[in-house]
Amino acid sequence: MHTEFIQIQNNYELALNRASEVLLSGGIFVFPTDTVYGLGCIFDNEQSVRRIYELKGRDFQKPLSAYFSSVQMAENYISKQSKLFYTLCSKYLPGALTIVVEKNDRIPFYVTSNQNTIGIRVPNNRFILDLIDKIGIPFVGTSANISNYPSAKTAKQAFEIFQNKIELVIGDDQSVVGCESTVISILNDNLKILRSGAIKIEF
After folding, report:
1. Which residues pair with 120 in a beta bridge?
2. Which sequence spans correspond to the domains of the chain?
């Protein structure tokens, strides 16, 4: 498999169009975020989701996260949320925060490792937000690395890991700060920090 490599600078529309085509055709791509590089696919293609696990050697008991262009879009894929959820979203999103909440039945269980929860991301990254708006549905993903190895912090690192194994690598090292997102859960209106990361939660 040939892996296409597109740098966003001077190729923004091309990158947007190719990423959209790859996702909607069931392909897998590496993408920049506001944290580290990610490895993603469309949210409702089981074969593509399983490919991500196989490419990374990822434990199937570890769920993927879902990427949305806005909190309003995420509302269509999660259960009704409390005031706490919206307070945190207003303060930290778009941003480097993953919020684990109860999903609804639009998110397949093969994305969440048969759990009733999903980690949602609205990254502070123009390209990703534009891409999701373009395709009109979320995609799912995880860090671009082999499991138990460091996450890719440059497009070159990600390309070297997944060259000839995936369809597309989108590069934008300027947007990637190199620190994973902070992960919190809000279940039964209780806030719990699951992983410290780029954002320090103060509440």
Report:
1. 66, 99
2. 4-195
Q: Are 175 and 158 in contact, with CB atoms under 8 Å apart? A: no
C-beta separation of 120 from 59 below 8 A = no
In percent, how much of the chain has pLDDT > 90?
95
Q: What is residue 203's three-state secondary structure?
A: coil
**Edge-first strand listing for the sheet containing 117-121:** 4-7, 168-171, 29-31, 38-42, 139-143, 65-67, 117-121, 97-102, 182-187, 190-195
How large a percentage of the chain has pLDDT more than 70? Answer: 100
Q: How far apart are CA 201 and CA 197, in angstroms?
A: 10
| pTM over 0.85, yes/no | yes
The domain covering 4-195 belongs, at the CATH homologous superfamily level, to DHBP synthase (3.90.870.10)
Higher pLDDT, 82 or 133: 133
